[in-house]
Design brief:
This protein is an all-alpha fold. It starts with 5 loop residues before the first helix and ends in a 6-residue tail after the last helix. About 15% of the residues are buried.
Length: about 70
C-alpha cells in the first residue's frame, strides 16, 4: 500500500472537498506548482491517472470521508 506524506494527505482532502488547485495553494500557503507536484506524486504512488481515480483510491482505503 502506498504511503502518502502528511502534506499529500492534506492536499488529497482538499481535492476531495472540490477545491481548485489555486484554492488549495492559497489555503495551504504554497505555490500552484507545488500543489501540482504533490498531485503528480500521489498519481504515481497510487497508480492512477486522474483526480477521480485519486479520490476513488482514497475512499477505497478510507483515507478520506465525504
Amino acid at each position: 500500500m502506498a504511503v502518502l506524506t502528511k502534506r499529500e494527505q492534506e492536499i488529497l482532502e482538499l481535492i476531495a472537498s472540490e477545491l481548485t488547485t489555486e484554492q488549495i495553494a492559497q489555503n495551504l500557503n504554497i505555490s500552484i506548482p507545488t500543489v501540482e507536484s504533490h498531485r503528480r506524486s500521489m498519481f504515481r504512488k497510487l497508480g492512477v491517472q486522474s483526480v477521480v481515480g485519486l479520490v476513488k483510491e482514497a475512499l477505497k482505503n478510507n483515507w478520506i470521508k465525504i
